[in-house]
Design brief:
Layout: H1 2-7, E1 12-15, H2 24-33, E2 38-41, E3 56-59, H3 66-74, E4 87-90, H4 95-106, H5 114-121, H6 139-152, H7 156-168, H8 180-185, H9 194-197, H10 200-206, H11 216-219, H12 233-245, E5 253-256, E6 259-266, E7 272-275, E8 284-286, H13 288-304, H14 310-317, H15 329-341
Parallel strand pairs: 1-2, 3-4
Antiparallel strand pairs: 5-6, 6-7, 7-8
Helix pairs in contact: 12-13, 13-14, 13-15
Length: 349
């Protein structure tokens, strides 16, 4: 780029970490004195320099990081005598990246920028911007960006994930897909995906990013190792709890092998509170989620055969390779007992 600009008569220096770099301090001082028209920088000067007179920033290489983008943009945002504006030319590489850059700029108003971006792209709406700020788009660009925004949804985490996949060529290199941790470090909140997809695992699978035979070790620990319950499963569990609680108190007993548990009442989260009765185990909870997975496993047994046991429930519920200690084996066992008390072991689903 230095040679290309020099061939066109520009006074240019290039600063980078490799051989052939111009001296950093001399280049910056010459730029400040007006002896240079531009400094080409590669992986330097993102932060830590103070040249208020810079009135043009040209971004030739798109970055995946919104933080780095704002740092690079910030090189030209300082006020200086005689400087009316800073001109930014961003060769972002594709329209989707430009859509994300718009969101980042609009987020400087104090939120994620998603609502302002929607208002900017929707007809007859105007985004609320800080005093003295405006955003203008050519009509053709606005229509194109509106289509991209609608296709990709309003969730910023989804957009960031898909953009990174595109930039990294994840269709050809599946291993390059971003992880939840990477998005977290970039300032996004992967936990928001639960509202729409149930878990990070389910989102990645919906994006065709899940490798065949993906295991617990590959996809992380904690709640995200659990698959998502199908629609209506919790409602079935609630109905089962209501039926058990409607029984007379002498009939509120669950059998699990040679052990018994007494149904004490409803749990705060909507499940069952049980204990071992006088001299038995202390009170514990059978959650709606546990019971819902048991009901799903019972339906699977009715369809494909086999036994309804803890192994069957956890195989359906958790990813392959999930350690036994990370699952709720005891509660799952009593959830099976609760379902069987309703006749669940005899074809109920």
């Amino acid at each position: 780029m230095r040679a290309w600009l020099r061939d066109r008569g520009a006074r240019v220096a290039a600063v980078h970490v490799g051989a052939g770099s111009d001296d950093r301090e001399q280049a910056l001082q010459a730029l400040e004195r007006g002896e240079l028209d531009a400094v080409c920088a590669v992986d330097v000067f993102n932060e830590g320099i103070d040249l208020p007179s810079i009135d043009r920033v040209v971004m030739l290489r798109p970055t995946e990081s919104s933080v780095v983008f704002l740092q690079q943009l910030g090189r030209g945002l300082r006020a200086a005598p005689g400087k009316a504006a800073v001109h930014v030319i961003a060769f972002v590489g594709n329209h989707r990246m430009f859509l994300e850059r718009l969101r980042v700029l609009l987020s400087l108003g104090g939120d994620s920028g998603t609502e302002r971006l929607r208002a900017l792209l929707e007809p007859e709406r105007t985004p609320e911007l800080p005093a003295g700020c405006s955003v203008e788009l050519e009509l053709e660009a606005k229509l194109l960006l509106a289509r991209l925004f609608q296709v990709r949804g309003v969730d910023e985490v989804e957009r960031a994930y898909r953009e990174l996949c595109l930039e990294r060529g994840a269709d050809d290199l599946p291993a390059s897909r971003p992880t939840a941790g990477q998005l977290q470090r970039m300032g996004y909140l992967p936990a928001r995906l639960r509202e729409r997809h149930g878990s990070w695992f389910e989102f990645v699978r919906a994006e065709s990013g899940l490798a065949p035979g993906a295991t617990w070790r590959a996809w992380g620990k904690g709640r995200d190792v659990s698959r998502r319950l199908p629609d209506g499963a919790i409602d079935k569990a609630k109905a089962a709890v209501a039926e058990l609680l409607a029984r007379p108190e002498p009939d509120r007993w669950l059998l699990r092998g040679n052990r018994r548990a007494r149904i004490v009442g409803s749990a705060p989260g909507g499940g069952l509170r049980i204990d071992g009765g006088p001299g038995g185990f202390v009170e514990r909870t059978v959650s709606l989620t546990d019971l819902a997975w048991v009901i799903q496993a019972a339906a699977d047994v009715a369809s494909t055969g086999g036994l309804l046991d803890e192994a069957r429930v956890n195989k359906l519920r958790y990813l392959e390779g999930t350690p036994k200690g990370s699952t709720r084996w005891i509660d799952t066992g009593w959830a099976i007992a609760a379902w069987q008390a309703l006749g669940g072991g005899r074809g109920r689903s």
